[in-house]
Each structure stands twice: as structure tokens, then as C-alpha cells.
Amino acid sequence: MDLFEDDAPGQNAPEFTVSELSGAVKRMVEGEFSHIRIRGEIGRVSWPRSGHVYLDLKDDKSVLASVIWKGVASRLPTRPEEGLEVIATGRLTTFPGQSKYQMVIEDMRPAGVGALMAMLEARKKKLEGEGLFDPVRKRPLPYLPEIIGVVTSPSGAVIRDILHRLRDRFPRKVLIWPVAVQGEKCAPEVARAIEGFNRMTPGGAMPRPDVLIVARGGGSIEDLWGFNEEIVARAAAASDIPLISAVGHETDTTLIDFVSDRRAPTPTAAAEIAVPVRTELMYALDDYAARLGRGMSRALDLRGQRLRDLSRALPRPERLVENARQRLDFASERLPSALRRNVDARRLRLSEAAGSLRPGTLRRAIQSEAQRAERLAARLGPAESRLIAARRDALTARAARLRPEALSAELSRQTTELARLTQRLSDAQKRSETQRQERLEASARLLETLSYHRTLDRGYAVVRSDNNVITSAAAAKTAGALEIEFADGRIQIGGAAKPAKKTKDTGPSQGSLF
């Protein structure tokens, strides 16, 4: 039988290229498994620099290669970790380059509370192994902080409870850093808030808090999961500011509780831990003041009693001076006789000294002093001549340096300067007189302008009665006699007439002009 006969079976089957076959398989797989949910345990996890995540989903028999693209990986609520049981949602596709199929994951969540707790225990062991839970590294909280930083949601009841409790106990300045307290944004925002508070400058425009409170109300483990993320725990452990964690209720426990410096069972309890009660402090201060006063009183009483006890052991002042007084009496009795003996002794010494003095001795001393005076007088004449000669030479030398030409030139210069100053003084005096004359003339013109006689020249008159100016018709009716002054003189109306006379312009005056 010929093995190469043309009519062998299968010769009519169509031929495919490798790419065509791979494309057909790809379309078939993606068409049949375009949306699937798979439950499995995460095996190998790879995080390349591109940002994509490559991992394996496995069970006890099979392994499924999977990929999470960069955009999806940044939005996942749970970070993929080896050993975590998850439920992945996505689509199945093929990778023709290696002739394998894989799952493109679009969403991934832990498979129930048990998986979350298992992942939480794994993280807890890891951080505990690094020493982040060590009590030695926990710092004491400030007794009375000036500024308190709160990391929480600004719209929840937590911040109102904290502010209310602080206001009741001891009002302090509060800086609030708003964050999301659940969901995928919770962990990065809380970590950034803790780091942001630590980067503030103490005493700056926005002062750095003295203590931090990270707070959230109660909820399920999924709601509180953001505070179990590793970035939050590490940010709390790296904080230089003492940190109080107040996440959930008293029975809730998160990783931030283990790394924080102090854990509060509730947000309200965190406010109570952060500050003392002001009224209790005031009562304590009053009690301390009262105790101090009582202690001072007791101390003064004890010291006074001790002083009185010691004073009883001291001798009386009279006894202390008795011996001295007696010695003084003895000395005063012996003083007159001692004075007499001293005077006698001094008189005896004077007599002995006077006996040794002789007239010849005095004459020899006088002659010696006279000879010494003659020697000094003989030396005085030549010394005086030499001094006069030296002074005469000095005077001659100075006179030689004086030249009449220089004196004449200086005298001429000073004379010229005196003439110039005299001329300036005369000119200044003339200008001053001119200015004064001009001011006087201006004042005279102003006086002439303001004089009421100029008004009289225009036809007006001044009415007087008994040297008083009449300014109203009623006053004119009651007056006995009137005197009217015109520009060319005065006339009398009523009473004895007086001769009119021209008044001298003495300046402006008040009057009635008509």
C-alpha cells in the first residue's frame, strides 16, 4: 500500500497560519468569557515599573495568570498581597506571544471577612517584626497642648463630638485636616494628613500641632479598612508629633491603634485624653494653695516655737555686760593717777633734753646755716645771668622770624575784609529800612481803607447819645439828645447845641451809619 497516495484522508482540511489560529482562539475565548467572577488565592505578585500588576490566581489544583492594568490598580480598594483569598471580576483573554490565556482583572475584593482578617494578621506580624508596635518607641502626650490637630471627616459627628468635649474640658486651638474616612481615598489622604501636620513649622504662620488625633466613628471592618493599610500605619509610626488613634468603637481594632502613641476607645475619649479638665485643675490649684498656706503657717509656728526655746537658753543682757561694766569702773578709778604719772614722766624727759642744749651749740648751727646761704647767694648771680642770656637769645630768634611785610599784608587783607563787611552791613541796614517803610505805608493805606470816615465820605453818618453809639430806632426814641457826625462835622439835635467840628481819623470804630 502506498503511504503517499493523493486521496489520503484529511487532505481537504483548510490551512491556517499561526496568527490566524491565535486570533480565532482569542475571539472565541473573549466571546465566551467576556465577563467572569473568579474566587481564588493570590499567588505570585509582580509590580514592574510600568505600574501594571501581574499575579496568579490559584486553588488546590490549577493556576490562572492574571494582569491588572495601571489605571485599574490605582483604584483598587485592596492592595493585592500573596496568600489573600479574593473574588476577581474581569474578562478572559489570550496572549498569543506565549500561547497562553490570562484574566484581565477589572475589580478585586477580599473573599469575605475571613480573608480580610487573614491579611490583617499578616500585616500585623510584619509590622510587629519591624518593631513598630514596641512600647519603648511610644512617646508621652503633652499635658496641656496649645494646638491640637485632628485628622477626620469635616462633615461627620466625630468632629462635633471632639470640639464639644474640648470646649467642656479645656478649650484649645484645633486644626482640622479634612480626609475621607472610608473608601479607596481614605488611606492615602490620612497618610498625607499626618505627614502634612509633621511638616509644619513650630511657631510659624500655620503653627504645628502639639498632638494629633486620628478619628472616625464606628463601622464594619470594610468601612474601617483604610486605617489598616500599611501606608497609614507607617505614617503614624513616623510621626514626630504624639498621635492618638480614635478609630471606631471600643471593640474595633485597626493597625493604627498599635502604632499610635495612645489609643482611645472613642473619638470623645480621645478629646478627654488630649486635655485635662480645667475645673479640676482650678480645684487642684486651690487645694495646693490652701495646703501651701497651711504648710507655711505650720512652718512659721514651728520656727517661732524653736526661737522661743532657744531664747530661754540664752543669758540675760545684763549678765553679759556685768564683767565689762566692772572692768570699766576699775579702769576709770585708775585713770587719774595714770595721767599724773604720764605727765611727770614727760616733764622729766623734757628737763633732760633741755639740759643738753647750750648757747655755743646754737651759735655754731647759725654760723653753719649762714655760710650755706652765702654759698647759695654766690651761685645765684651767675645762674641768673645765664638765664637772662638764654631768654635774650630766644627772644632774638623769635624776633628774627617776624617780618614786617607779612604783617603789612595781613593788615591790608584784614582792612579790605573790614571794609567789605562794613559795606554789607550798610546795604543790609538800608534794605531793612526800606522794607519797614514799605510795611508802614501799607499799614497806613490799610488803616485809611478800614477807617469809618471813608464810609462817612460816601454819605453815611454816625449817631451818638452821651458818647454812646445809637444802633436802633428804639434807642434813638428814648435818648434825650442826639449827636450826628457827618463827613464834614457833627450836629446836635435836642438839648444844648454844640459846635460842629471835624473829627480826626483815629481808625475804624463801631457806630450807626445811615
Automatic annotation (TrEMBL):
**Primary localization class, coarse:** cytoplasm
Coiled coil ranges: 411-438
What are the Exonuclease VII large subunit C-terminal domain coordinates in residue numbering?
Answer: 132-402
Q: Does the keyword Coiled coil apply?
A: yes
Q: Enumerate the spans annotated as OB-fold nucleic acid binding domain.
A: 16-109
Query: In terms of domain of life, where is this protein from?
Result: Bacteria
Top-level EC class, please?
Answer: hydrolase
UniProt-listed Enzyme Commission number(s): 3.1.11.6
Reaction catalyzed: Exonucleolytic cleavage in either 5'- to 3'- or 3'- to 5'-direction to yield nucleoside 5'-phosphates
Query: Which InterPro entries did the record assign?
Result: Exonuc_VII_L, Exonuc_VII_lsu_C, OB-fold_nuc-bd_dom
Alphabetically ordered keywords of this record: Coiled coil, Cytoplasm, Exonuclease, Hydrolase, Nuclease
One matching Pfam family: Exonuc_VII_L
Q: What subcellular compartments does it reside in?
A: Cytoplasm
Please give the residue ranges the record annotates as the region Disordered.
495-514
PANTHER family, per the entry: EXODEOXYRIBONUCLEASE 7 LARGE SUBUNIT
Give the function comment from the record: Bidirectionally degrades single-stranded DNA into large acid-insoluble oligonucleotides, which are then degraded further into small acid-soluble oligonucleotides.
Q: Matching NCBIfam families, A to Z?
A: xseA
The text of the family note is: Belongs to the XseA family.
**What does the annotation say about its assembly with partners?**
Heterooligomer composed of large and small subunits.
Q: What is this protein called?
A: Exodeoxyribonuclease 7 large subunit
